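Notebook entry, structure prediction.
Reason for the run: the old model in the group folder had no record of what sequence produced it. Starting over properly, with the input documented here first.
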Amino acid sequence: MQTRPILKYVFMLTLLLTGATALVGCGAMSPPKPSAERSVFPNPTHWQALSRTASGVTGDITLTNTTLTFGNQASLRISPIEHDADTGQTLFRVDSKTNPELLNGNFMCGGKPIDYIVVQVTGDVPGQSDMQLMAYYYPGPMQLADLPLKDQNDLNRMMCALYTYVGIESKPMKAK
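New structure, fully documented this time:
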């Protein structure tokens, strides 16, 4: 009667493999497909600091879907979460929970690590910036629909910085 446990094992394994094959076949277990959000900045885009704040804190920046690099070559690892083509806004989660020292000993958002960044590319509007970068403290999940944040007294969920830039035609940033 030793064959009975083995048959039971083979039967269970067959059921498991059949179920897994069915899930893969219907796409339930397939790896996530690249979404529009993940291809907003597939190639490095270069931005020249326009506002005094951007000039004094971040300097010129380079942005990709995975990295925000500042004028002093410090960087943040980021991941795109959501993109709204109508507003030009892209929400990024900051993966590297840090707040690196930037130009002139400044930090992007005071002393706390940044949780999210929103990039809004406005395009060719004469007299206006091409891009705004907003940094947020927001400890929980965030979506573009959460903006603008309503409670300015909530120090755990607030925009902590706003920087403006103009586009630089595909010139790599110079190392400093």
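Summary: The first strand starts at residue 45 and ends at 49.
The old model has been moved to the deprecated folder.
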